[in-house]
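Hi support team,

I've been running sequence recovery on a batch of backbones for a student project. Most finish fine, but this one hangs at about 90% for roughly twenty minutes before it completes. I'm not sure whether the input is malformed or the queue is just slow. I've pasted the structure tokens below so you can try to reproduce it. Let me know if you need the job ID as well.

Thanks,
M.K.
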């Protein structure tokens, strides 16, 4: 399974249920990676999408502890166990965990690849991705050239779990 995330130098990913910054190339990369695939997200992350609707051209699976939660155009599961059971019908490489913080942390033991847009900044934040640089199980296996969006420098990194 894959993570896909944009994080700053402190591994911050969001503030008040919003992304820290919207970088068009990051959004494009996200679309290219996930279209036609399975995206797994938490309910709060879904609420940040336009009109709170699932992403088009993808299989959306939403994890919500609320047993009454239902989402048109998405499969809703209510526990980690139910999520893992649901994911068995898909190929591991086609599954992308897209947030938020709680789901990233819960899925850390199950993912082997992380596609990280690393933003060379420190933002005020209240949501974080696990720091893979400090985790001896993970290593960077690919790195893009540094890019800029206005005055924001960033690069695309691929982390893989060491076998």
């Amino acid at each position: 399974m894959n993570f896909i995330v944009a994080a700053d130098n402190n591994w911050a990913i969001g503030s008040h249920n919003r992304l820290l910054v919207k970088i068009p190339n990051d959004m494009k990369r996200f679309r290219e990676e996930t279209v036609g695939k399975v995206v797994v997200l938490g309910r709060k992350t879904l609420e940040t999408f336009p009109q709170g609707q699932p992403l088009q051209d993808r299989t959306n699976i939403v994890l919500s502890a609320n047993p009454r939660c239902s989402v048109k155009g998405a499969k809703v599961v209510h526990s980690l166990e139910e999520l893992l059971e649901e994911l068995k019908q898909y190929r591991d490489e086609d599954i992308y965990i897209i947030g938020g913080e709680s789901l990233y942390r819960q899925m850390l033991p199950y993912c082997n690849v992380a596609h990280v847009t690393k933003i060379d900044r420190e933002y005020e934040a209240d949501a974080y991705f696990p720091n893979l640089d400090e985790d001896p199980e993970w290593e960077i296996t690919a790195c893009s050239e540094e890019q800029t969006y206005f005055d924001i420098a960033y690069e695309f990194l691929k982390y893989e779990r060491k076998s």
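--
Follow-up from support: It reproduced on our side and the slowdown came from queue contention, not your input. The helical segments are 24-34, 43-47, 80-87, 101-107. No action needed from you.
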